[in-house]
Amino acid sequence: MDYKNRVKISSILVDESVESGQTVALLGWVRTVRVGKEVGFVEINDGSCRGSLQGVIANPNESDVLHKLTTGCSVRMEGQLVESQGKGQKYEIQVKNLKIIGKSPDTFPLQKKRHSFEFLREIAHLRPRSNTFGALNRLRSKLAYGIHQYFQNKGFYYIHTPIITSSDAEGAGEMFRVTTLPMDNPPKDESGAIDWDKDFFAAEAFLTVSGQLEGEALATALGDIYTFGPTFRAENSNTSRHASEFWMIEPEMAWAELTDNMDLAEDFLKELFKFTLSECADEMVFFNQWIEKGLIDKLEGVINSTFERLPYTEAVKVLEKNASAFEFPVGYGQDLQSEHERYLTEEVFKKPVIVYDYPEEIKSFYMRVSDDGKTVGAMDVLAPGIGEIIGGSQREERLDVLLARMKKKGMDPNDEALQWFIDLRRYGSVPHSGFGLGFERTLMYVTGLSNIRDVIPFPRVPRWAKF
Ligand code: 4AD
Ligand code: MG
Question: Which of 163, 170, 164 is nearest to 200 (CA)?
């Protein structure tokens, strides 16, 4: 089989590096087939871009291949690229050679009609061939590239933090255990407890919930770093915004305080949206038309806005005025629920809001205690339609304050597993800050897709790890 003179549809429709008149061979999947008396039409898509190309077959009755073609077949289609007379397309192929590579019987579940997202999740192995998931996966790839470009251009170093870890970065106890001990009969110690010393790592181990703690070790050596990797949460919340496996981008900066952190978060999001609009223009036209009308305007609005920065205590005051409309209680010391976050961004400010300086009781042990002694230098970036998209903080760099706060939170400052983290405060400690951006939440925001299961190729959520 000759694949050598293959031309990608993107080089015809997007890059326009192939000129009409040339003979090209396309390799792709059949979207539709129409056979008339005089001519036959075959539309194929090869995944390289949103557009498909139509092949025109003269004397359809003489073509035995045409009559065997069905939606979903993979084919090789060779012919001359010509400007099309037809409406809505610039080019077509005058087919000289058409060959079926892989048949597709009529049980192929992706027929040319609108399928529900629920149905498509059941066939996650085939949905990348649909318009929506083709666009999503191309955009996901480009956005990942844009994220690297943003940080690399700013002199941040890309760090690979471990996926298997023995520390619970968020202290929320939402970790998946990694073990090789037999589940039905684990070894026990004298007291009858499981003897983790006999486990693979001679210690309890988990999938990471965040690369932050290890990121801090690298930032306090290299200055500015970022991670971009998978993270895992065994939190049993079956919502449209929570996945059990998701990708997080975590910049960490030495010599940076909370306002520097907010500045980076705001600039990063705006630059990312600019990148999306300019580098993923083709996909964005699709999402704007089919998934969320006004999407492009929404992103431009954010790019041109100044994010609202609101201390937690002020946010609570705003929410209290509307308390009766909420399901969950509002008041100092209560964590903000999604309905509160959405009210602030969608009803009150109508743009992204950075809520900062949270009560220390409701935030993680590593956050820096403010001068008031009551709050910590935490910040959450909330976006309309989604709620929390970024969570971050200035880290506690003072050894004595960190140890005291750990005790207050019921943690053991002598815990062997955390000594390395405390060492960062023992030796050459520096003020430092960072945050985590959920990659899937970002994709939801820029595509308008409203369920996190639809912005990652193979989602993992409670009771679902298929494929
Ligand atoms: O707010 P989180 O839990 O913060 C951290 O993990 C910090 N260690 C980050 C840091 O400071 N370096 O998570 C950060 C972001 C959230 O704002 C959200 O966008 C996303 O990660 N996120 C989730 N995305 C999908 N599914 C989940 N279950 C998520 N949990 C958090
Ligand atoms: Mg958070």
Answer: 164
Ligand having the closest approach to the CA of 233: 1
Q: Which of 396, 421, 441 to mutate to test the pocket of ligand 1 (most atoms within 8 A of CB)?
A: 441
Q: Give 422-434 pLDDT, tens digit per residue.
A: 999 999 999 999 9
Q: How many Cα atoms within 13 Å fall on the side-chain side of residue 378?
A: 20
Token pair of 124, please? 């996650």
Query: How far apart, in whole angstroms, are the C-alpha atoms of residue 33 and residue 114?
Result: 17
Q: What is the CB neighbour count within 10 angstroms for residue 154? A: 15
> Tens digit of pLDDT for each residue in 315-348?
999 999 999 999 999 999 999 999 999 999 999 9
211 touches 227 (CB < 8 A): yes
CA–centroid distance, residue 378 to ligand 2 (Å) = 9
Token digits for 264?
Answer: 């980076």
Among 236, 246, 272, 454, the mutation site with the greatest number of ligand 1 atoms within 8 A of its Cβ is 246
SS3 126: coil
Looking at the DSSP bridge assignments, the partners of residue 25 are 6, 78
- Residue 363 has what DSSP assignment? S
* CB 440 less than 6 A from any atom of ligand 1: yes
Distance separating alpha carbons of residues 185 and 299, to the nearest angstrom: 54
Q: Is the CB of 7 under 6 A from ligand 1?
A: no
Side-chain half-sphere exposure of 206, counting CA atoms within 13 A: 20
Q: Is the CB of 242 under 6 A from ligand 1?
A: yes
Residues 6 or more apart whose CB falls under 8 angstroms from that of 397 comprise 368, 425, 429, 430, 431, 432
pLDDT tens for 357-397 read 999 999 999 999 999 999 999 999 999 988 999 999 999 99
The C-alpha angle with vertex 386 and arms to 384 and 392, in degrees rounded to 5, equals: 95
Say which residue the tokens 């026990």 belong to: 188
- Interior/surface letters 71-102, b for 16+ CB within 10 angstroms, e for the rest: bbbbbbbbbebeebeeeeeebbbebeebeeee
453 CB near ligand 1 (under 6 Å): no
